[in-house]
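The instructor's notes for this session suggest beginning with a concrete chain rather than abstract definitions. Hand out the sequence below and ask the class to guess, before any prediction is shown, which regions might be ordered.
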Amino acid sequence: MNKQTETLPDQWDAPARFLHWVSAIWVLGLMGLGLAMVNLVKASGLKFDLYQLHKSYGFLFGLVLIVRLTWKFIFHRRKISNRGFLHQAAIINHNLMLLLLLTLIASGYVVTCFSIIPIPIHVFGWNVPSLLSPDMLMEQGAISVHHMIAFALLALVLVHIGAALFHHFILKDKTLIRMLK
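After discussion, reveal the predicted structure:
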């Protein structure tokens, strides 16, 4: 194995960087929207509109996530030699974030399916079909799961951001720069 395949590249490829930053902005936007619609908005009409927006953009993010995972697992295999603790922690955090994103999207869909008010997810004139029957008890459980996953994901995102800043300002390496070039 030569030195080029053993070391980290100076930057991530353009599709990986694009998908990373689109995902980051999208997820933070969905989290902010979710917090606002649940905790801040009192007007029922506005609350309804925000819920519909949250469901539609959550579904669309699921499609973005599929593209991102496809790119990651098919086209974006990198050989790197850094296998220390920080590297392993980063891999675990990243994989947990992806797993929680998938679970969050699935739980959001389940909430919509179990809703006793049968309002489908509406995306570009297409209604996402419900595969489950309305059930108030299951809906409440799914909402609780959806919220717990969202807060767990937020914690991992904060760790991820903190790690990027730690690499940049304390370790002074190129980890963050590779994602910005």
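Then share the key points. The two ends are 27 Å apart (CA to CA). The chain has one domain: 8-180.
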